[in-house]
């Protein structure tokens, strides 16, 4: 389950509670109500699931989001250094143009799908 789905489910639970008991605070509600509502938002509807398994599933969801957001900064640094070198006074306009396209491709690969999260 991706971050957008989790956010949508959390907003759905917010709307449910806004319509159901809008004045209730976390202090007022029972542990069971909140737990069930929060777990449903994360797609964990099986309340007979062992607690450790629920935490593992939650950890997997957040790990996937973190992994998708990771950008290879070493590659970006290397590309920047190469561009800096290639754009020195000795470089020709044509060589800068060719190198720039190749390096732009490497930057996009390093970024991956980070802009789509």
Provide a descriptive summary of the structure in words.
- With 117 residues, this protein is an all-alpha fold.
- It folds into 2 domains: 67 residues, no CATH class; 40 residues.
- It contains 5 helices and no strands.
- The protein is elongated.
- The model has no long low-confidence stretch (mean pLDDT 74).
Number of helical segments? Answer: 5
The main β sheet shows up as:
none
Average predicted confidence as pLDDT: 74
Principal-axes geometry comes out as elongated
Through-space gap between termini? 12 Å
Tally of DSSP β-strands: 0
Give start-end ranges of low-pLDDT stretches: none
Structural class: mainly alpha
**Total number of domains:** 2
Residues in helix, %: 55-70%
Topology as H/E string? HHHHH
- Compute the gyration radius: what is it? 24 Å
β-strand amount: under 5%
Defining key terms:
single chain; 117 residues; mainly alpha; 2 domains; elongated
Concise account of the structure shown:
By secondary structure, the chain is mostly helical.
Question: Helix and strand layout, with pairings?
Answer:
Blueprint: H1 3-20, H2 31-41, H3 51-69, H4 73-86, H5 93-111
